[in-house]
DNA sequence: ATATCTGTTATATATTATATATAACAGATA
DNA sequence: TATCTGTTATATATAATATATAACAGATAT
C-alpha cells in the first residue's frame, strides 16, 4: 500500500493509518469496494503489531468507511455514505476555531488559508 | 477568565486551555501585554492542579505567545511575533490534508468549507 | 481431511501522556 | 515578616498507545 508512517511523530500510528486511508479514498487511490490488506499483512508491511491494525479497521468500520466480511476480509465500503451528521460538523467547526485563530496570528492570511483549502479540494473528485 | 473546560472531552485539559488562550488573543479578548492569572489562581478557578496550568504557560512561553517575569507573572507577549516559520506551515498543511479529505467525503463542499473559514477569519482583527 | 488464510478475542506487559498531590525554594512586594 | 509569584522535585494514579502470545471459528484451497 501507499502508507507512510512516521514513528517519531506525536500522532499515534493508528491515527496516521486512519488519516491516510481516508485521504486515500478522497484522492481516489482507494476505490470503493477495494480490498484492504489483512490485519496481519498490513501490520507486517509496516512493521507493527497486528492489534494496532485491527484497532484501525474496527474504528473505520464503526465510522462507516469500510465493511468487514469474516474471511473475505476488509474492503472500502462500496456504499460509502458517511455524510455529515450534525456531530461531525460540530467537531469540524470546533477544530477550525482554533486552527484559524493560530493561523491568523501566525500571519497566514484568509486568502492564503483558502488557497490551501482549494489546493486540497481540487485533488478530490 | 473566559475559559470553558470540558472534562469529558477527549482533548486534554492543557490543550483546551492553550487553544482557548490563543483564540482569545485572535479574537481580541486577550490584549497584548495583558496579565494572565497566576498558575495557582487559574488552576483554582478551573478546579484543576496547578501543574497543569504551569505546563500550559511554559508551552505558551516556549512558542512565543506569552512572556513570564518571575513574580510579575505571566502576560500575553506585548511583542507578539510568532509569524509563520516553515515548520508551522508544514504542520498546518498536513492537518488540512486529512481534515479536507474527511470533510469532502462527508459531503462538506469546498464552498461550505471556505464559508466556515471566512466566518472565523471575519472575527479576527 | 488438512493446511492456511481470514477476523476476533483474551490476557499480559511496557511505555508514554495526562493529571494530581505535597512539599519546598527563591525572588519580588506590601 | 507575610504573602504573592514562578519553579523544581518527588511521588502517585489513570488512561492511551503499542506490543507479545495464544487461541478460536469460519472460509478456502490443496
Sum this structure up briefly.
In chain A, 54% of the residues lie in helices and 6% in strands. Chain A is mainly alpha-helical.
Written account of the structure:
Two copies of one chain form a homodimer. Chain A is mainly α. Chain A has two domains: 13-76, Arc Repressor Mutant, subunit A, CATH 1.10.10; 86-121. Chain A has five helices and two strands; from the N terminus they run H-H-H-E-E-H-H. Chain A has helices at 13-27, 39-46, 50-62, 86-105, 110-121; strands at residues 66-69, 73-76. A two-stranded antiparallel ribbon of chain A has the order 1-2. The A-B interface holds A 19, 22-23, 25-27, 80, 82-84, 88-89, 92-93, 95-108, 110, 113-114, 116-118, 120-121, 124 and B 19-20, 22-23, 25-27, 80, 82-84, 88-89, 92-93, 95-108, 110, 113-114, 116-118, 120-121, 124. The first copy, chain A, binds a DNA duplex (30 and 30 nucleotides) through helix 3.
Mean pLDDT of chain A: 95
Given the structure, what is the number of helices of chain A?
5
> What is the correct CATH architecture of the largest domain in chain A?
Orthogonal Bundle
| Helical/strand content category of chain A | mainly alpha
CATH class membership of the largest domain in chain A = Mainly Alpha
Amino acid at each position: 500500500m501507499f502508507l507512510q508512517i512516521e514513528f517519531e511523530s506525536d500522532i499515534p500510528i493508528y491515527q496516521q493509518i486512519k488519516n491516510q486511508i481516508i485521504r486515500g479514498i478522497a484522492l481516489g487511490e482507494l476505490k470503493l469496494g477495494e480490498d484492504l490488506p489483512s490485519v496481519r499483512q498490513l501490520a507486517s508491511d509496516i512493521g507493527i503489531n497486528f492489534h494496532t491494525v485491527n484497532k484501525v479497521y474496527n474504528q473505520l468500520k464503526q465510522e462507516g468507511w469500510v465493511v468487514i466480511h469474516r474471511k473475505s476480509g476488509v474492503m472500502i465500503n462500496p456504499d460509502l455514505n458517511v455524510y455529515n451528521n450534525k456531530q461531525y460538523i460540530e467537531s469540524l467547526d470546533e477544530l477550525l476555531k482554533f486552527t484559524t485563530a493560530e493561523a491568523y496570528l501566525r500571519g497566514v492570511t484568509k486568502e492564503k488559508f483558502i488557497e490551501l483549502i482549494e489546493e486540497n479540494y481540487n485533488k478530490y473528485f
